[in-house]
Amino acid sequence: MMWQWQWTPYTVPLLLATVVTAGLAGYALTQWRRHSHRPSRVAFGLLMLSTSVWALGDALQLASVGLGPKFVWRVVAYVGHNFAPATLLVFALLYANREEALTRGRIGVLAAEPLVASVLVAPTTPLHGFIWTDLDVTTVELFYVLDRSFGPWYWLNTAYNYVLILIAIYLLVRTVLDSPEQYRGQLGALGVAIVPPFVANVAWVVGLTSVDFTSMSFAFTGAALAFAVFRYQFLELVPIARDTVVERMRDGYIVADDEGRIVDLNPAACDLLGVTRDAVGRPSDEVVPECAEILADEQVEQSELVFEDGDDRRYVTVRASTLDSGGRLLILHDVTDRKSAERRFQALFEHSSDLLTVLDPDGTIQYQSPSIERIMEYETTAVVGRSMLDFVHPDDRETVADELFKIARNDDYRANIEYRFRNADGEWRTVETRGRSLLDDPAVGGIVANTRDITDRKERERTLERQNERLDQFASVVSHDLRNPLNVSKGYVELAREEDDTSYLPRVEQANERMERIIGDVLTLAREGQSVNETAPVSLPEAVEESWTTAKTGDATLCVETDVTVSADRTRLLRLFENLFRNSIEHGGEQDSGEALTVRVGALEDDSGFYVADDGPGIAPEKRDRVFEGGYTTGDNGTGLGLSIVADIASAHGWDVTVGEGEDGGARFEVTGVELLDIDKS
643, 577 in Cβ contact below 8 A? Predict the structure, then answer.
């Protein structure tokens, strides 16, 4: 009879409870291993494992007939019975977001009593009687049951377990009361799972029932927990932690399961979508049809959507991620205010003559006014998102970066920066930027820079500066160079009058001629300082020959060694050659050998311009840097303005002029940057 079996009406419910709770234990522990290692999943898995051992032990104990088998299976059930309350309390603490209470020491204290009870219920229990005494088999309702009396440790163990269960129930009730409405169904299912086994156990302990229905009620427990797990994402969301983090979020929060049903959303999402908490459990494509594509496609991680409700329009950025369970999490950030601010900026600055820019603290352009298309010829999309420093001249970047740093660090700092800015054609424009920080202003949230193109103003300033320098030169000529021949002329006139001697008149005539030349050079210098606006093809040999005939060249010889055509202002080009020829004649004179001076004109070998060279004494190297200065001369009869006129004519054309030593030892002037034209002479 020892290993014989009997049929009882309680066998099927007990085996069903075993299967359900064991399945939940396996599911929870599998989820823990495959996905995120959440402690609540482990605690839930161990709780279900304990109850499945309890139910299996009771099922086999009732199904067996002999005292020995019944005792063995009762011991198995008692081990599961001992650990179920402890694991329930651990799970309740984790579920209620009291994880800080679960130190290693406290977990050890919780496990100590179940371990001791499990040791005492081993085969030694008939010897000491701490757990059970007077073990026997009796008949109840026509089937055999284990009859036993209880020892002192049994009552201590029962009281201990009841305390743990009551604490767990208290924590869960508090969680229900403190949780949002959409969690009431989940927590209600949890209550159905815990309360019936506890009531059944109390009824049996106090003698209200002849059979212990505790483990049989685990079938209802498992069904309720399975409903909570698969309907309410029971193991995925912890209500208290969610209430702390999610309920107070300013952004919308939506969770959909792998079948597309809404399982959670916060008040911000409800306000944004115009729905209530009743949306939980409904298909997501009904609640948020705008997000259907994002929820269906795991590859989409971010998008910007427009939610319309009549005339009201909300702009929302949506960030999506896939959950371990296969569902999708959406974070909805309302950017309507930002869009409104952008429209206000655009309306204010669209037609501004200045550039209005909003920058991040690191200089990245958040917003650029459309005026950049007109002023710098950039599309706004080509600059937004790039660093402002990308458009600043390399030599000015450090200065601009320092000013941006000061603005970002100090709300009261006002910057005024002048630097060079590259336009879409690659041209460097001089700009002036006034900047201030509006990082704390929610409508702006950046550094505001007002930039104005001052290239034309700076050019006018440079022109005015050159004019002032020229006036200084004129004043110097009038006060010094013109005064000397004037004094000479006056002196000789007085002598001629006093002595009635006309021999002084030739000297007066020379002084007057010198004054006339000075006055002519001053007037020429004033005119040649102006820019050349229009040019035309000019034959260089023809211009050279014409200039040679108008200059007083004496016995000097001209040699033209080129036939090129240049783009120039013909009148000014003639004046340039006249002054170069006059300079050669005045400073060259006759050679020591008695031969006349030779002046050669030709094109440079690299086709960058032309040269004028003579075989006179040349210009000393230490004087070459000053010969183009107004009023500087190395001769007694020179005005010091001829080469200054040459430099101004070259500059007005955009050319450069330099002086060096010629092949014959004389002076060689090279004019570069000249456009040589290829003219068909056929």
Answer: no
Cα distance from N-terminal residue to C-terminal residue, the chain: 134
Torsion, Cα 652 653 656 662, to 10 degrees, reads -110
Query: What is the mean pLDDT of the segment spanning 386-411?
Result: 92
**pLDDT single digits (tens) 529-558:** 556 678 899 999 999 998 888 777 778 899
Assess contact for 18 and 62: CB atoms under 8 A.
no
- Give the model's pLDDT for residue 681: 45
What distance in Å separates the CA atoms of residue 354 and residue 369, rounded to the nearest whole number? 9
Which ranges of 503-614 would DSSP assign to H, the alpha helix? 505-528, 540-550, 570-588
Amino acid identity at 680: D
Residue-level pLDDT at 461? 84
Q: Tell me the pLDDT tens digit for each residue of 413-467.
A: 999 999 999 999 999 999 999 999 998 888 788 999 999 999 888 888 887 777 7
Token pair, residue 598, equals 């030779």
Rg of the Cα trace of the chain? 52
CA separation (Å) from 371 to 13, 343, 381, 510, 610? 80, 15, 13, 63, 44
pLDDT at 292: 75
Q: Which residue has the tokens 């009730």?
A: 173
Residue whose C-alpha is closest to residue 361's, from 411, 430, 431: 411
Q: Is the dihedral of CA 563, 569, 573, 576 positive or negative?
A: negative
